Fold this protein.
Amino acid sequence: MKRMKRRQFVGGLAAAAGVTACARQDTGAPAGAAVTNQTFEWSVVTSWPPKFPGLGIAVDNLAEYIDRASAGRLKIKVYAGGELVPPFEVFDAVSRGTVEMGHGASYYHKGKVDAAQFFTSIPFGMTQLEMNGWIYYGGGLELWRELYEPFDLVPFMCGNTGVQMGGWFNKEINSVADLEGLKMRIPGLGGEVLRRAGGTPVTLPGSEIFTSLQTGAIDATEWVGPYNDVSFGLHQAAKYYYYPGWQEPGPALECIVNREAWDSLPADLKAIVEIACQAITTDMAAEYVNGNSNALRQLLDDPEVEVRAFPPDVIDYLKSITEEIIAELVAADPAAAKIHASYRAYLDKSADNQRISEQAFLQTRS
Ligand code: CA
C-alpha cells in the first residue's frame, strides 16, 4: 500500500512536469522503477558565488540529494559562477550542451528571452506561496517548458528566496524625486522600472556588488534579504536598508537541464531530479526564514544601519510604472503576452484568497 502510494506520488510529479509520457516511451518501464545500472556524470554551472548561503549551498545540496537518492548513478559536479562559465552565461552553456545542468534565475535572460522574467519574479507580482501554486498547479510549469523548448532546455523550479528587501542605499529615498539619477544594481523588470523613474539600473553578479557599493560606483543595490546581504557585508557599505522588496516579492530559482542530457536519463533518475528540485524549494524556504530572522535581528541592533520603509508615494509611483512596462512587454512579445495572461489571472484569483488568509492573519500579529 505504502509502495503504491509512493509510485502514484512520483508519477504525479512527473505528470505535473509533462514528462511521464516520454519517460515511459524511453524505458518501457513504470516511473519509479530502477531500470538500468548505467551511471551518469554531469556538471552543473551556477550564477552564484561558491558555497554561498542559500543560493549556492542549494546547488551543493541538489547534487548531494541526487547522488544519494540515485545510489551514485547520477553524479553532478558543482561549478560556482565564473569557475567554468561566467555567472550570466549559464543559460547558453546548458543550451549548447557544454554542460548538462545549470542553476540560476530566469530573469537573468532578459534581452534573450524576455518572457522568462515571469518565472523568477516580477515587481508587485506573486509571493513564494503563489508562485508554487501557479508553477505546480496553475499551468506555470507547462508554459515555462514551452518557452525554453527552442533552446533545448528543460526547466525546473528549484528554490525561492521568499520576499526580498528593497535594498541598500547610500542616499535617502524620501520622495520620487530621489530616484532621479540613482545608480543602482537591480536586475530584471525592477531595473526597467527604476530606469523609467529616472535612475540608472546596473546588472552585476553577486560577487561584484560589495566593492561597487563601497567605492561609490553605485549608489544603491538590491541583492536578496538580510541573510544574504549580511554575508556580503552590504551593511558595511551602505547605511539605509529599505523595505519591502517590491521588485522581487517571491523570486523562484531555476534548475535547467540540457534536453539531450535529460532524454538520456532513465525514468527513475528523471523522477529523482524532479523531486530533488522540489526538495530544494522547500529547503531553501526554511533556510531563508531562519537566516533572515537571525540576520535582521543583527541589523536592527547595529547602530550604523537604519532599516526603513519606502514612502507610500514612492511605492505607488513604482507600481504605476510597473504596470506601464508590463503592458509594453506584453504588447511587444507574444510569448510574454501568453505567459502574462496566465500569471495575471492566477495572481488576481490568489490575491483574493491571500487577502483573507496570510495577509489578514499577519495583520493580527502586527
Ligand atoms: Ca534580488
